[in-house]
Fold:
Amino acid sequence: MKKKIFVFLFDGFSDWEIAYLTPEIKKSENFELVYFSKEGKSISSMGGLQILPDTSLKVIAKDDIDLLILPGGNAWEKGENNEIEQLTKDVFDSGNTIAAICAATTYLGQLGILNDLKHTSNDLNYLKAIAPKYIGQTNYENKLAVSDRNIITANGIAPIEFAKEIFTKIELYDLDHIEKWFQLFKNGIWKE
Structure:
């Protein structure tokens, strides 16, 4: 049975932040990518890409989610996307993985999910400013991507590092292959 990876899409999501990871996961016979939005209706990415998601938030069962991916976008900074709060908390509480990049990390901070886990964001001051309820600064790491237990966080300038952390967590490939993939896309180097 395929593991299901759900990607939350919303108007203005940062399309480049998931552009490296989704094609690799889509190639695998072990995973099913499911794109969803609040209503399941067409949305437009920050780059103007029109997308019709597979489904809507209201028909998703938390038990179906093996990994929840939250791309960045200005909506998080504006306090939008709160409709996924219960789903996000349920996925976290179940021990399944949540991967958030850029402004989506502020959402996890606002929900208190980052308080006791190592994590990163665009910048600690940015995280504190956007998420006033955030109190996890002692666990903040100034890195491009960080994984701790069932949470993956990444800076908005690190979609390749974000993908690498996700690939490692879901064991998409063996570690040597993941490192080769990373070196190819990060540095333009492929070694046999």
Q: What stands out?
A: Residues 175-187 form the longest helix (13 residues). The mean pLDDT is 97. The chain has one domain: 3-187.
